[in-house]
Fold each of these.
Amino acid sequence: MKHLDLVGSTTVITGAANGMGAEIARLLAPRGVHLALLDHDRAALDALATELAGTTVTTHVVDLRDDDAVFATAAQITAVHPRITALITCAGSSMLGDLDQLTMEEMRWLTDVNLWGTVSITKALLPSLRAAPAAHITHLASVYALAAPAGRIPYALGKFAVRGFSEALRHELEGTTVSVGAVYPAGVRTGIILHGRYAAAIDPAVAARAAAAQAA
């Protein structure tokens, strides 16, 4: 694998408005890395871009569940950023509830965000990443992609799939200039539980207590 130098090239980060995505942007910006930041939260993206003034940064509001919007956004990014050398997928949400409490729609919603959003942005940007002398894809999975707890079936389902996607893609890209990795964080104080969803069948007070307990 060729040496990967991010300085002066662009790193694309999904879920960049908050949590780990925003912190990664804050870490990279002072190092001379150009940034393309994606999220559905326009206000938070704009605030982060203002905070990172002095850095070459573009913001892109997109719903990662919308494949057409994802590919259109990827085209916008490549038009502005000619050298993309890294993609870091941090976008994700949470859903609390047991299987008998969750609807199929609720589970599909989370899978669309956590899995298919990761797949679509990776597919959309892969040609640009291939064009670089060296590039890397990092998928934020979860410790729940290694061991699945009760009450988190749709979350674990999507994260196990992200793990499988990452491993298979890594093998597909062997011998190319693009490498692939996945990260499996345990508890991180990002607020994902408090900002996520819970099954509509759960009493809101019970769900709030469960979310607060996990957030702590």
Amino acid sequence: MHLKPVNIVSGYSREQFTSEFVTPGIPALIKDFILPESQEILTKWNYDYFKKEAGDTLVAVHEKENAHLDKATSQAGNTMKFGDYLDLIAAAPTESRLFLFNLLRERPDIRKELQVRKLADNLLTWLPFLFFGGEGSSVRYHYDIDMSHVFLTQLHGVKRVWLFPNDQANLLYRLPWNFHGLADLR
């Protein structure tokens, strides 16, 4: 396997970004994706802020995603208050994670704080999800069956991401009509 570093870019026009990255399907780390008027969220959006703003919101907590490679998705193990979940992941390593918790739909006032550059058509900026996982949590490899352009903004901690080109999809043991595959890439 030949691993390549991801391009780190900034200052791209919509046309430039589309022709150099979107059309050929090349991933990029965009340094200026969040607009300057929203830059404060990079420090403001922390566990204390989210607990204050939405700590009483009930969330479905998922466990050990990689334990169920033969299933389309894992079921939530239990529910708890969002603030309690944030305390849990801050306290110690855990595999507990939130999947498709749309805090920004639950709290549209928080959504208004995030303004991003529109660098290409068909971006999912209208459907922002926040994913949370503690140290030690992971998800099995997945893909978007609609081939949408997805943006990942890491606000806290470290995340390892492996990206595979679409022309390798038939080698990844994908489940039909699903967004997961059978291979455990760990």
